[in-house]
Write a structure and sequence with these properties.
The protein contains one helix and three strands, in the order βαββ. It is an alpha/beta fold.
Length: about 70
């Protein structure tokens, strides 16, 4: 049985990278990407693994993470 992996994407400009997608596809994993600004996240219990992608920095993190 192939593992089912849920990828939660928080912003349209930060999708899963091609290396991650290719690596998971080569191992036979079943993937689903949820774009949380378009749809609700799926039931996590239905998946074997969860990958949370990063989101934008908050306005108050400029000193910690300068551009």
């Amino acid at each position: 049985m192939n593992p089912k992996i849920l990828i939660v994407q928080h912003t349209p400009w930060q999708p899963p990278g091609p290396v991650l997608l290719q690596s998971l596809a080569e191992t036979g994993c079943s993937l689903r990407v949820v774009e949380v600004w378009r749809e609700s996240a799926a039931d996590f219990a239905d998946y074997d693994a969860l990958i949370l992608l990063g989101g934008a920095f908050a306005f108050d993190e400029e000193e910690r993470c300068p551009c």
